[in-house]
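B., you asked whether I could sanity-check this one before it goes into the benchmark set. Here's the sequence:
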Amino acid sequence: MDDSRDFSDLSPWEPHIRSFVAFCPPDARAAPSSGSLRGLTVGVKDIIDVAGLPTRNGSAACEGAAPAEADAPVVAALRQARARIVGKTTTTEFAFTDPTACRNPHDLTRTPGGSSSGSGAAVAAGLVDLALGTQTAGSLCRPAAYCGVVGVKPTYGVLPVDGMTPLARSFDTVGIIARDVAVARSAFSVLAPNAAETADPLRSTRLLLPTQTRATQETHAAWQDAADAMGAAREVVPEIDVAAIVAAHRCVMQAEAAETHAALLHPDRICLLQPKFRAGLEAGAALSPGEVTEARNTLDAARMAFWRQMQEVDVILTLPVPDGAPLIDGTTGFQDWLTPWTVFGGPLVSLPWGLDSLGRPRAVMLAGHPGDDLRLLSVAASLESKAPPIPRPQPPGA
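And here's what the prediction gave me:
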């Protein structure tokens, strides 16, 4: 991309997908002559600070926010590696579930997913090489899956969340959406330079697919195809209680969100909030300490039990979503399969796996033990080389 361009007219795409909410001035985007990410362009989800731009969190309640005085550490690290920060990408309000005006480049009648909506759409359309997103339930891997790009949710706590507006601190994780695994790994190496890489051989890969919500036939076929490509053992790991984990997670998430954003519940401000976020804060504020403690205990027990079962398993192949991106219908898509993985805390890589008969991207997902990020990325790179291609979507009128 030409640094002199006005990125508010980024390409024929942007008026249709509305993946950006603000753009850096050209002089702020210019990259010095060397660095490991030299030449790569980056979008940043608008709950993460970029110096000189306001962080509006997708909310009318933040419309008058002043420009950030400094980059969040994750943005500063990318900039130091000579990536070009293009601007702020569209987010759902405070990274919750109220849908945005952003659209999926593969089909403008469909959602890109949320809450990292603009990050997924911008990478899929080729407007940027990578984008920062976040995941508190399923907010990064879902838009990556729906938009046909790579999504990397690192191990919880590996990347700093300073300079990021929190939703629920027990789960909030900064991650990467990228055009391919190589770009994602390069960015992760910059963001987590001290991440350990094991030299141990891969012991085993297992399959896990929740059955409480069935995948469509085409999505299930993608999972089976990926299993064949990996040579994964056909032993399916024990079923997890998705419903119980989702319910407990929602309790903790809403309680933490209500505590963090208590000021938004003031009568003068609550009227500015969108309905789902407002309802989530009100529900969180109404929870008793005992209810929240019980939910935390449920999640801790589920996490420990799961990794105890997985002691001898290095990689799990699963699906991030049961179907392709849904039509615009007031939601950001299905996230219940992703919530348990966020609770378990390990790294996740969502990989595109061809298109379904409606032209929607399909995806599979790899999960690993906490701290095993680099090995999971290596496995993802190998699997990516065997995946069916996804053609880049074309803008209307092209």
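One thing to flag: Residues 289-309 form the longest helix (21 residues). Otherwise nothing jumped out at me.
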